[in-house]
UniProtKB/TrEMBL annotation:
HAMAP family registered for this protein in UniProt: Endonuclease_III_Nth
Species assigned in the record: Vannella robusta
Keywords linked to the UniProt accession: 4Fe-4S, DNA damage, DNA repair, Glycosidase, Hydrolase, Iron, Iron-sulfur, Lyase, Metal-binding
Keyword Thylakoid: no
Assigned EC number: 4.2.99.18
SMART domains: ENDO3c
Name this protein carries in UniProt: DNA-(apurinic or apyrimidinic site) lyase
């Protein structure tokens, strides 16, 4: 079954999958991971989008939204450490739509070269910036369909961009780390991030939709990596994919 609800005016129906039986222990596992994550500095924390709303004026917020957009565009298939370095270069140069419109493609490539596919991404930044200046007064569009029309913005990153840029809950942003961890924990049984998003949205309370990517994603970067560090994992005793066998099971063998 599915339910629909408009995420923003002018947006198509937002589909959320419904499951007959929600994951029973997700809340306990979530809380334990949250405590461990608070003591971890993950690579994605280096991207730096923590400016509080009350500390910014309207102009600053507009530039922050552009910063969020560009960082997500650069992050595709790139380690967060490399994205952070490229963003540092851009911020030192002056990361504004006006400056990105004026900069030559060659110079832009040299600034973002730590990331993968830098030539293609540089062109995406130029093309998208042109659209923003011509159609949105240099700001970001407010709906998911409009954001998806921008070159370099894909379905995996769009919810993260919208949530952070507009400080509203559009949906759960799912990257490879959240996708991997959610499947290992048995929260979902999915083949791709978009299905993971729909499955997570079926049982996670909406007030967790914005935080879950950074919280679980960072946990996946440091603890539950491709080769998991189950020894240091705080929920290995509750994880169906844990490589650490319970003592009772070892005793039986």
């Amino acid at each position: 079954k599915s339910t629909t609800g408009n995420i923003a005016k002018g947006s198509p129906a937002h589909v959320v999958l419904e499951y007959e039986k929600p994951v029973e222990n997700w809340n306990a596992v979530y809380g334990i991971i949250q405590k461990q994550r608070a003591a971890i500095t993950a690579p994605l924390d280096l991207l730096g989008h923590s400016i509080e709303k009350e500390e910014q004026d309207e102009k600053d917020e507009k530039l922050q939204r552009y910063d969020i957009l560009v960082s997500h565009m650069l992050s595709s298939q790139t380690k967060d450490e490399m994205t952070a370095k490229a963003m540092e270069n851009l911020r030192e140069y002056g990361l504004t739509p006006a400056k990105m419109e004026e900069i030559t493609l060659e110079d832009l490539v040299s600034l973002i070269k730590p990331v993968r596919f830098y030539s293609r991404k540089a062109q995406y930044i130029k093309d998208t910036t042109k659209v923003l200046l011509e159609q949105y007064n240099g700001d970001l569009p407010r709906t998911i369909p409009e954001l998806l029309k921008l070159k370099g913005v894909g379905s995996k990153m769009v919810y993260g961009i919208a949530n952070m840029a507009w400080r509203n809950t559009f949906g759960i942003g799912v990257d490879v780390h959240l996708h991997r961890v959610a499947n290992r924990l048995g929260w979902v049984n999915t083949k791709n991030p978009d299905d993971t998003r729909k499955a997570l949205e079926s049982f996670l309370p909406k007030d967790k939709w914005q935080e879950v990517n950074v919280m679980i994603g960072g946990f996946g970067q440091v603890i539950c990596k491709s080769s998991p560090n189950c020894v240091d994992c705080s929920v290995s005793h509750l994880c169906p994919s844990s490589l650490i066998k319970p003592k009772t099971e070892l005793a039986i063998k």
